[in-house]
Amino acid sequence: MITREEISLIGKFNKPHGINGEISATINAPLDVKEDCSCIVCDIEGIFVPFFINEVRRKSQDNLLITVDGINNEQDAMTLVNRDIYALSRDYNAAIANEDELPVNFFTNFKTVINSDYKGSIVVISHDRYFINKLADRILYLDESGMREYTGNYDYYVEKSKSLEKKFETASVKKNESVNAEEYRKRKELQSNIRKLRTKIQKCEADMTALDELEEKLQLEISEESTASDFEKLMQLTCELEKCQKNKDEIYECWEMTQLELEKMEKSDKLN
Question: Element (H or E) spanning 233, and its range?
Fold first, then answer.
């Protein structure tokens, strides 16, 4: 018998797709369900039941169409609607260990897991500022001069590092009063552009946070028993959820491109 300690939450079933037992699912974990999971597990009346996967088709970045053994028609598929999907922890951990890049929605599930199940500390080395900001409560910054510690999330680090930058700029201006006027103007223009990009990134992060909250609200409404019996409402909420996830993907793409541009400018600023 499978126990709760042997499984890890990876997503949720949504609604049947067609009449042959195929069902849509949202996966919030960095693994390939077909390749990485020996089976998936659902809580059926308090018993963790394994389902062996027959076929997986990708609908969008995080939405799949899944066919499992024993679910052969739409009526069978309805028994899985809104049920959480688990993977065996040994499969889940192996997939995490081999994953080089986390998808946009991964931090949501990861944060849920460590808040509920994990009691220790985690060291994360990442260029994903949004991911760090949501999870970290301590930042260690390493450069050629050594290591500095910031007790807080990424926003706190940015705030404190800006303060240090201002002090450095003031000292630098006093020390180099003979600096070329054109070079100084270009430097200030570059720093102005850096601030604009940081503001744009903060807006993207705020928008993603709002969409995360909306997605969680929609998933809760979909999981309600009254919704399961109201097909029209279920379809409406599902459409809203898909639109929310699509908007998240678009905003994340904008955030990622802006972050790359910011990193280039910051590197140029350091060289100057």
Answer: helix 231-271
Determine phi and psi for 134, rounding to 5 degrees.
-80, -25
17: left (phi over 0), alpha (psi -120 to 50) or beta: beta
| Residue 193 identity | N
- Burial (CB < 10 A; 0-12, 13-18, 19+), residue 64, is buried
User: pTM for the complete prediction?
Assistant: 0.40
Strand residue runs (E) in 156-260: none
* 180 phi/psi in degrees, rounded to 5: -60, 130
pLDDT tens-place values along the chain, 272 residues long: 899 989 988 899 999 998 899 999 998 877 788 888 999 999 999 999 999 999 999 887 668 999 999 999 999 999 999 999 999 988 877 776 554 555 545 555 566 666 655 666 777 776 666 667 777 888 888 878 788 888 888 778 778 877 777 766 666 656 666 556 777 778 888 889 999 999 999 999 899 999 989 988 988 888 888 887 888 888 998 899 899 989 989 998 999 899 889 888 888 777 66
